[in-house]
Write a structure and sequence with these properties.
Elements: H1 40-60, E1 69-70, E2 79-90, E3 93-99, E4 105-106, E5 113-119, E6 128-132, E7 143-149, H2 155-162, E8 168-176, E9 187-193, H3 197-208, E10 216-223, H4 232-241, E11 246-252, E12 262-264, H5 269-275, E13 284-289, H6 292-298, H7 313-317, E14 325-327
Parallel strand pairs: 1-4, 9-10, 9-13, 10-11, 11-12, 13-14
Antiparallel strand pairs: 2-3, 2-8, 3-7, 5-6, 5-8
Length: about 325
């Protein structure tokens, strides 16, 4: 039998607008004077206040944003973007922020999709092209973020890690992966390793930020050490905010002693049997993304971007069918 994760809920209080009332009382100056019962002064005062409030709002209040402009469209033209900033995420992984053409531009990506990058060095006979999934929100204006791990001898990752602020890189997309729709699955299990977290994070964000999407998510995230865990802060915030719908299991080759939040070792058949939704038990889906060794052990690799290949490995042994698994 497979264990099920228990989830609890959160409620947010809604603030009510502050209501302010004002009154003025006048003393009578003589017995012949009568108090006026006319509402006109109050009507005029309210109108003046409303006019003043409207003027203040239009002059100093927040301005509506202009329509967002997609940067990448179905035209799939190569677009060069300027590197805006670089942050070290782990000893061999950087977060790189690229500026979009204007502050009103968004990436234009759909969930789930990625971008292609292109670079040709002076000694290279042909350009190097590699796919990357941005980790910034698809609605984010003005920039997009990548996380890129440096691989020794990897021409694209080496070039990106050597880039300086204000240098440019060519991008093209979006390249569709898995066309997500709200509630298309009851429960999704995500198995990721290293930078394979990027497309998983894109999918997790899209599901959780949509209040009408009730899909439950279980993430199994494998790494070598604690410092190799990418987007750990972001994942913990999502887990704390959506405890009813999102649960993350960290697997580390070298887990710290006494770390109750992580399991030491590799992703195993016993672990997946315990935490994933059962095979053929409903409208569920398992997603896999990681290094070649992880694919070989968990699901088998893809034959090509359009051919998922046969399902093998642990997921096959657990009884999942090819249709229940998607390999990023």
């Amino acid at each position: 039998m497979f264990a099920r994760t228990a989830f609890s809920g959160l409620r947010c209080a809604r603030a009510s607008p502050l209501r302010q009332t004002a009154s003025r009382r006048f003393a009578s100056s003589g017995p012949e004077e009568k108090k006026s019962s006319s509402p006109l002064p109050y009507i005029l005062g309210a109108a003046a206040a409303a006019t003043a409030g409207y003027y203040y709002y239009t002059q100093f209040g927040p301005k509506p944003l202009p329509p967002a402009v997609p940067t990448f469209t179905e035209a799939n033209d190569w677009i060069d973007l300027k590197l805006d900033s670089v942050t070290l995420e782990s000893p061999n992984t950087k977060r790189l922020r690229f500026a979009l053409p204007s502050e009103d531009h968004i990436s234009g990506l759909t969930v789930a999709s990625c971008l292609l990058t292109k670079y040709q060095g002076p000694q290279q006979q042909k350009p190097v092209i590699r796919p990357y999934t941005p980790i910034s929100d698809e609605d984010q204006r003005g920039y997009l973020d990548l996380i890129v791990k440096h691989y020794e001898g990897g021409p694209m990752s080496t070039h990106i890690h050597d880039m300086n602020v204000d240098q440019r890189l060519l991008f093209k997309g979006p390249i569709p992966k898995y066309p997500w729709k709200a509630n298309m699955h009851e429960h999704i299990g995500l198995i990721a390793g290293g930078t394979g977290i990027a497309p998983m994070y894109q999918l997790i964000r899209a599901v959780l930020k949509n209040p009408s999407d009730k899909t439950k998510i279980t993430l199994v995230f494998g790494n070598v050490t604690e410092q190799d865990i990418l987007l750990k802060k972001e994942l913990q915030e999502l887990e704390n905010t959506y405890p009813q719908r999102f649960k993350c299991h960290y697997i580390l080759d070298n887990a710290p002693e006494g770390a109750g939040w992580a399991t030491k070792g590799r992703v195993t058949k016993e672990l997946l049997k315990t935490v994933l939704p059962e095979p053929a038990a409903g409208n569920n889906k398992i997603f896999v993304c990681g290094p070649p060794g992880m694919y070989a052990a968990i699901s088998g690799g893809k034959k090509s971007p359009k051919d998922q290949g046969e399902l093998t490995g642990i997921l096959k042994e657990l009884g999942y069918s090819k249709d229940e698994v998607f390999k990023f």
